[in-house]
Amino acid sequence: MQSRSPAVRTGRPRSAAADAAILAATREALVELGWSKLTLGDVATRAGVAKTTLYRRWAGKNELVVDAVAELFDELELPDRGSLAADIEGVVLQFAAILARPEARSGLMAVVSESTRDDALRERIRTSVVDPQKDLVLEGRARAQARGELPPETDPEEAARTADLIFDVVAGAVVHRTLVSAEPADEEWVRGFTRVLLLGLVGAA
Amino acid sequence: MQSRSPAVRTGRPRSAAADAAILAATREALVELGWSKLTLGDVATRAGVAKTTLYRRWAGKNELVVDAVAELFDELELPDRGSLAADIEGVVLQFAAILARPEARSGLMAVVSESTRDDALRERIRTSVVDPQKDLVLEGRARAQARGELPPETDPEEAARTADLIFDVVAGAVVHRTLVSAEPADEEWVRGFTRVLLLGLVGAA
Amino acid sequence: MQSRSPAVRTGRPRSAAADAAILAATREALVELGWSKLTLGDVATRAGVAKTTLYRRWAGKNELVVDAVAELFDELELPDRGSLAADIEGVVLQFAAILARPEARSGLMAVVSESTRDDALRERIRTSVVDPQKDLVLEGRARAQARGELPPETDPEEAARTADLIFDVVAGAVVHRTLVSAEPADEEWVRGFTRVLLLGLVGAA
Amino acid sequence: MQSRSPAVRTGRPRSAAADAAILAATREALVELGWSKLTLGDVATRAGVAKTTLYRRWAGKNELVVDAVAELFDELELPDRGSLAADIEGVVLQFAAILARPEARSGLMAVVSESTRDDALRERIRTSVVDPQKDLVLEGRARAQARGELPPETDPEEAARTADLIFDVVAGAVVHRTLVSAEPADEEWVRGFTRVLLLGLVGAA
DNA sequence: ACTTAATCGAGACGGTACGTCAGGTCTTGCC
DNA sequence: GGCAAGACCTGACGTACCGTCTCGATTAAGT
């Protein structure tokens, strides 16, 4: 997270255990209190750590919560279920399961909201949350092309644009369903969504 | 906004001008400061109003911002452009234009985030922001069915589910593109999105 | 303590009771904790008052303690005991009694120390603590002159210088005895001091 | 300052230079910042020393400042000027010159103030600051008695009491003039003070 | 015109959290 | 073992907003 590669690393080294304790305490506080009532003093107390230790490592609430929530998305992966539709359904369900957890619900949109006025924060979110998810889209498409379910790309730039589009559609739909409409993105919904995504409104009707 | 229809309403009536001034001041503060740095004391000062006046009408920051942002969405409408695709492109572009404004960018996701732990707030958002948008989906589908672009519904419950799905996909995609990916939802993107929405990944490829 | 004579005094007026409660709490905390361990947060709590209320009225610990300690000196007066020697002994004993109280012991020299680098603070000390005491010197001298114990002044400037000198000698001796030598300025000591002051080392020997 | 005479003193011996550097840095910081803004971390940095080194030798800020200020008083001596009055004037001027230095002004009364609640600190002040000064009083009296300016003592206990009294009067007056009245104890003032001390108010008038 | 009563501005109030700073301790690795 | 470096826990700092309250002054509707 922070590297001081130059020079000899003098002085007492930072406790590695503190980082983990702080992030776990942050998630715990998110569950109990939600974003707006979460205070850094409380997180420090839960983690058994001084407030100064926390501020030495994170610039503020936003950065801390991004790192705490980002770890939730580490478990996302794209298991091979044999078909494009099945692959999509699988990964969307995983994504929905993460968004169903209260620590993600309250924290994620809050930091996204803050990131609209803080470029460094947006970059941090992109690096640790968004880009890893986007890689799943690329991997899924490659697999579908290998199976012959999708045609190979001709224009690489166009291909990148399409991947971004698909990612926004998939992630956006699940987030909106979960947080705005406040309805569960369960198996039935995911089947319907995947059908529309693959076949379109006209084809799915 | 609030009615005290029972009883006779004696005494000095509330200033109608104050409401408008407060909401305008709220949007102004959202633009300049963003959600997290917006304070009610500052809004009151901008509006030339005492803090008590503000608290007499809104319960807090969340409710105030919902009302201030909701007004931005009042201008959304569904002009008849002759085809389903053109109708979708038109309304999506309008939606994107609203989300491009800084007062919406910073405020909207923040209150959505808060609403994950506050049912009354979620209901307020739904009523004044979400449901009016959802009506546009219904209106668009009816128009497309009248044109023969989409088959008439058979199962009304299934039809409601589909409308919700479409709404989550459309709104979610635009929001995600604009706020998370932080890229503009411009005409080119909207064309690509509409194509995928109507034809699906397979059909659009 | 603070007057806002101009204009109309709008807004909620300051609580008069709070001032008294805060000063009393300050003295209480001085007794229990001493200057260096006294915290404004603790004083606020003892006074049943918010920290902000305290800061609204005093700039900091120094100013607060000056006001709290100054009240102790309000009781100083110069009773007519019939002779210059008896008058001096009487007022010095009173002064010593005040300096024997723990709230004065810990607080007084601390603010004097701070005042060496803070002109406004020195002025505050002078106005509310020192000058009233100095008036007693002038009053005592006038009385002694009326009795014929001291000759009337000829040069008024010289008279002012002498009054200052006497004040520094009297106050300084008692303070030094009490705080530096840490011995009680009891009746015996006061008698000896008065004898030296009136007759000098040579005359007193 | 601290002796570990028992045992064999193994390991690296303490740097003698560090002690001097720390005390000098302390006085420098007192001049620049004053007592209340002086921090041990800053002193350590100025002295080019780690905070641990400092704490290994002094228990805290109070003890450190006492030692740093005490060195200022080492230069006090009682040169023989031929008469009691001249001797007093000489030593009082020296004392006043030390108190005029900012490192003494800010530091001395602060530690005296602290010493009202810390017996060990008071003892340290007495040993390293007060008692050496008091010796000057004894020496001056002996010299005056040898000259026949003062009668020889009859009661040794009474003599000790008188010496203490004189010391409190002299030191107290200079301290009060310098720090409380914040006026210079210059030659003119010292002449007036000495005259009153020797002849008394009545005799000096 | 005269009450009546809720509104308005101003700003003080009790709180809570902020982010920083200093005190004093502990843990490294080098000397 | 001393030492420089710097992380650590603790606790206070002074500030900013919160949402409530207390003022005196308006301001309409009902008399």
Automatic annotation (TrEMBL), chains A, B, C, D:
<dbReference type="InterPro" id="IPR036271">
    <property type="entry name" value="Tet_transcr_reg_TetR-rel_C_sf"/>
</dbReference>
<dbReference type="Pfam" id="PF00440">
    <property type="entry name" value="TetR_N"/>
</dbReference>
<keyword id="KW-0238">DNA-binding</keyword>
<dbReference type="InterPro" id="IPR001647">
    <property type="entry name" value="HTH_TetR"/>
</dbReference>
<protein>
    <submittedName>
        <fullName>TetR/AcrR family transcriptional regulator</fullName>
    </submittedName>
</protein>
<dbReference type="InterPro" id="IPR050109">
    <property type="entry name" value="HTH-type_TetR-like_transc_reg"/>
</dbReference>
<dbReference type="Pfam" id="PF16859">
    <property type="entry name" value="TetR_C_11"/>
</dbReference>
<feature type="domain" description="HTH tetR-type">
    <location>
        <begin position="16"/>
        <end position="76"/>
    </location>
</feature>
<feature type="DNA-binding region" description="H-T-H motif">
    <location>
        <begin position="39"/>
        <end position="58"/>
    </location>
</feature>
<dbReference type="InterPro" id="IPR009057">
    <property type="entry name" value="Homeodomain-like_sf"/>
</dbReference>
<dbReference type="InterPro" id="IPR011075">
    <property type="entry name" value="TetR_C"/>
</dbReference>
<keyword id="KW-0805">Transcription regulation</keyword>
<keyword id="KW-0804">Transcription</keyword>
